[in-house]
Amino acid sequence: MRGRSLRLGRGGEFDRLRAIFAALGAAGRDLGDDCALLSVGGRTLAISIDLSLEGVHFRTDWLALREIGWRATAAALSDLAAEGAEAVGVLVSLGVPGSQQRRAGNASPAVQIMAGVGAAARSVGASVLGGDLVRSPRYLVDVCVLGVAQRPVRRSGARPGDGLWVTGRLGGAGLALAALRAGRGRRLAPAVRHRFARPVPRIAAGRWLARRGARAMIDISDGLAGDAGHLAAASGVGVAIELERVPCWPGVTPLAAVRSGEEYELLVAMPRRFGPTDVKAFGRATGLPLTRIGACTAGRGVRMTHDGRPITPPPGFDHFPAQ
What we know:
Blueprint: H1 12-24, E1 36-40, E2 43-53, H2 65-83, E3 86-96, H3 109-123, E4 127-135, E5 140-149, E6 163-167, H4 172-181, H5 190-197, H6 203-211, E7 216-219, H7 224-235, E8 238-242, H8 254-259, E9 266-270, H9 276-286, E10 290-297, E11 301-306, E12 309-311
Parallel strand pairs: 3-4, 8-11
Antiparallel strand pairs: 1-2, 2-5, 3-5, 6-9, 6-10, 7-9, 8-10, 11-12
Helix pairs in contact: 2-3, 2-6, 4-5
């Protein structure tokens, strides 16, 4: 452990985090990455926690309770993927409104949410290890994930000259969210709705990339441009993204794809030797595409172009935007 907080990108939420890091001082070591890392008996334990709150991260008129449990757990597991860690288990603090009663023929809301939690955990070979249940004014699902990493990948290891790559395709979650907000959720294509309701944490992809020498990695939860800014800040490099290279979900423009949050794909800096043969091996191992979208450079911040023309990078999601 370096005993210092990592640098974060821009945004009101991250200004608040910087203030918290400063207030914690020596009590807050190495904060700002996807996971905390602890050496235990010769192994590295990766730990992260992620809170999903009704009205902020999900709505019960958009998602079934089981889907809410899955989605909250997948979001937390995605932090392990970004560290290159294997998932071991999850613990869950669950808040359920006291007015929510069991409907005839259905399990209680707590049981339904936890069924989704369990399904998401099993999908990556993890177990539900415990948690807490409380009455709450709104649904909340607070998921702590535990994993082990043979070679942890931080956000802070990128170097100028590294290639910048992204797994999968982007924009599906944003496409679904726009339709839901417009009241068109019932007309969503099943694949698009599934992308939003049941995101897949890229555990296998993260472990593969870590074994192949990934320098820095982050999961795309706040949008590609915003999360690229965090990787650039932590590593002390610039990031150049070619918008026309960004792999997009069908029907999504590249600019919309880089704005789309909660994608839970991985953005990774790989050494310049990483090339087409490695991409094919990645596809065989994971069933996913891996696309080079730019490079790490000397300097600071995110630069974005479209067919050579400069584009202003869109801001990432911010819980505390400037007023």
